[in-house]
Structures are given as C-alpha cells and as structure tokens.
Design a protein that fits this description.
CATH class of the largest domain: Alpha Beta
Number of helices: 5
Helix content: 10-25%
Strand content: 25-35%
Number of strands: 23
Strand order of the largest sheet: 3-2-4-5-11-10-9-7
Length: 340
C-alpha cells in the first residue's frame, strides 16, 4: 500500500545536505552553518511537526529536479542561501497557480555565496538584514492584520519585512512584520521570516488562507495523536492512528469532511500504532470498516481481530464482497464476528 497525500508536499533541496567540511574557508563555513540550521522541514522540523497534528498527508518534491504538482502547495524551510534554480522554480510556482509557504529567513545568496534575491524580490519589497540574535516574542495576526490573543512565543530571531500587497500574518510584540500572506493572480505565498516553533494552529491558519485544507481530521482531547491513510490501486484503504501523547486518548476521525463509521469514537491507548481497515480484502470479502486491527482469518472466512478501540459496542465491523471487474456487487449485511 502507498501513502495517500493531500495536494501538499515538503520541498526537498538535496544541496542543503552537501555540507562537507571546508577548513580555512570562512565563506563556506558560513554557508554550511546556514544550510544545516534551516534545511529540510525547517528549524526543529517545525513544518512537519505542525502539519502532521493538523491532519495533512504529505510527501516531498525534489525542487532541484522537478516542479511540484500543478495547483499544489509546497512548504520549504529556507535559509539565506538557496540556489537560483530553486528560487526561480518557487517563483514560477506562485505565478502559475500554485502555493508556496516559506519558513526561515528569505534567501539572499546562491550556494556559492554570490548575491541572489530572485525569490525575495518577488514576494516582498524590502527585508531587514538577518541577524541571529535574541528577538522579541512574536504573536499570530489575523489575515486583516488584527492581533491575535493567542499565546506568544520567544523566537531566537525574526526578520522584519516590508510588503506592498497582501496581509500580515505574524508580527513581533512591537508590531514589526515578520510574516506576510502575498497573493498572486493564480497562486499565493506565505512568508514566515521568524524562528517559529511547531504550531499547528499557525500553520493550519496559513494553509486555510491559501485555500488548502487537510483531508484527514482527528478530533481528540489533547495533542499527540497522529494519523494518515494508505491505499492500493484496486481501491483498498487503511487508516493508521498513533497516539504519542503518553496517555489514553479518545479520537474521532473524518476523511474529506465525512466522519468515519458515523462518528465512532476510538479509544486509543498510548504509544502503539494501529492499522484499521477502511476497505481491505480479507478472506474473500472486503472489510469496509473495523474498529480493531485484523489479526488473521480462518479457512471458513471467520476474521479475527486484535483488542478493540471502540469500547461501547465491541468490534464494529462491516464486510462485503470485493468490487467486481464487471460491475458493482450488492453489499452484504455487516459481520460482527470478533476474536481476540
């Protein structure tokens, strides 16, 4: 089975990992320090750690070799050094109907240290010089520039931005702008030029302002529960749920806005992961749903399950014949056979 992805990907820049040691070169030492700080999913992996709790299912796009999928959104952790090829590709993304989210200082140089501000010039009119000194706390702002009453965070740095169009999405407590939402004719870009921590609320709001919503929604009483889905070419699907919070959690799941199993509440224990069928072929039948993992099947077609995640009604299971190549088949009555 392959992972299902929303129209979202992380930008992969492999040059950022070519950080071999260059003794005696102050320039290359500066480049290496910058790349290792901001590469991948951004500082402290803030991009991935913010998207996963929000229900976004994403892969990666190798930006040095190919464009993101048409109309998709790509998120990139940027430093002051980024190749001209990647900068031009990201500019092309927002001018042809796609979206870009940048986390980190706006690039100002190519990888060899030569000036290159193609991306920054396309997004903002002016930016302050990046400085890695302690900064004032930041706070989220609404798309209209109004300040949020949410919690503040104390970043290691911020980069002040000036913009001629778009909305403010992040400021420091004194009002200096360090995050903007920049619209284009067919696409859009969000620039977060600050050492932002993992913040699902901030990034969910940023993605929503670009018209991007997660395909998977997990509602639970505290953070730490993650999920994704996988599928096969012949229409089989599975739901993966992991509770990393360290405490039991109750979870309801919706896919593309539709609650699974009429909003069944799952009671997920801490630490282990669970793979639940959303349409798996087992013993000659398609298991449309079960609130427990499948442990095996007997020769007579009886399906055995691991401990149930639905404490209210035992293993909640629905089976039918797999879809036929010659046409649809009638769904069978739900089977509630369960064996630990």
């Amino acid at each position: 089975m392959d992972g299902d992805h929303d129209d979202v990907s992380l930008g992969l820049v492999l040059d950022a990992y070519m950080t071999e040691y260059h003794p005696g070169s102050e320039l290359m030492t500066e480049v290496v320090d910058d790349l290792t700080s901001h590469r991948g999913a951004g500082e402290r992996k803030a991009l991935a750690r913010s998207l996963l709790p929000g229900g976004f299912r994403f892969g990666a796009t190798h930006l040095e070799r190919r464009d993101p999928a048409p109309g998709s959104t790509v998120l990139v952790g940027t430093g002051r050094h980024l190749s001209r090829v990647v900068q031009e590709r990201l500019v092309g993304r927002v001018t042809t109907g796609g979206n870009v989210v940048l986390l980190g200082p706006l690039p100002e140089r190519d990888l060899d240290g030569s000036p290159c501000t193609v991306l920054a010039d396309a997004l903002v009119s002016r930016r302050a010089r990046w400085c890695a000194t302690p900064a004032t706390p930041t706070r989220r702002s609404s798309r209209t520039g109004g300040r949020s009453r949410g919690p503040r965070c104390g970043p290691a740095w911020v980069q002040a931005l000036s913009h001629e169009r778009g909305d403010v999405v992040l400021t420091d407590v004194y009002g200096a702008v360090c995050g903007v939402d920049v619209p284009f004719v067919e696409g859009g870009a969000i620039v977060l030029a600050a050492h932002a921590p993992s913040d699902p609320v901030l990034f969910d709001g940023a993605m929503s302002s670009l018209g991007v919503t997660p395909g998977l929604r997990l509602e639970t009483q505290w953070p730490g529960v993650f999920g994704t889905t996988t599928s096969t070419d012949d229409g089989q699907h599975a739901l993966h749920v992991l509770n990393a919070s360290g405490a039991p959690a109750t979870v309801t799941v919706a896919i593309d806005g539709t609650p699974i199993a009429a909003g069944t509440t799952l009671h997920v224990p801490p630490r282990p992961g669970h793979i639940l069928p959303l349409g798996l072929d087992v013993a000659g039948r398609r298991q449309d749903w079960a609130s427990a993992e499948i442990a095996g099947a007997d020769a007579d077609g009886t399906v055995h399950f691991r401990p149930d995640l639905d404490e209210d009604c035992g293993t909640n299971s629905h089976r039918r014949r797999p879809p036929s190549r010659t046409g649809p088949t009638a769904a069978l009555a739900p089977s509630l056979s369960s064996s630990m």
